[in-house]
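task queued by scheduler; priority normal; single chain, no ligands, no partner chains; default sampling; output format set to structure tokens
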Amino acid sequence: MASLKTLLRARLVCIFFSFALTVAATGLAGWALQVLHDDKVFMAKTVPGGKVEAQDVVVVSALLCAACGFAVAVATYAEIHLWRERRNGHSPWILRLLNEIALGVAALFVLGVAIAATVIVVGRSAVLSAPGFTQSTLNTLAAALGKNITYRGTTAYESMICAWFAFAFLTATWVLLVLAGLHYRKESRERAAQGVAAHETHAEKTSQSSDHEVAQQV
């Protein structure tokens, strides 16, 4: 098993990337929602009765914001926990347990949303509609105006990629935290064994001293 110092350093790197990637994913997903709103307003002004139907990417972008926002909070807590652990030289088991649970939940949340985002963002597009216009006409008009109606062309796609990388680093952080817990438990067992051995040695010396005193009195 790697040394505790190595585990702490590796965990610090993973926490940093987890934090950076989740912040980026949250920002990009929020940006995608803002751009979609602007496109809806633009469509309504350009074509009478024009609408942009993109409820699926709205939902998945909102979920990306929620999942990655939660992961940001968890990564922040994990960094505070790591700082206290390095300063004190140990970590209470209850704090490690809470950290493990929070990181596990955050990683699974991000994974589920990343899978949903992959299904929706990679292969789907917004649907344009307006009275008296065909779908192909509206798509041609959007292209002529420089509007990309595919979800892959929005920042929701970059947010999805960041979410996948964030999941990888959150999982790595969780694994390193578990390994650190095993290291602490091993040290605890060794200290307990040394304490028992020292107690037995002290008891043996005390017994020998008592026998010697009795022998002298006799």
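post-processing summary
- The first helix runs from residue 4 to 46.
- The chain has a mean pLDDT of 80.
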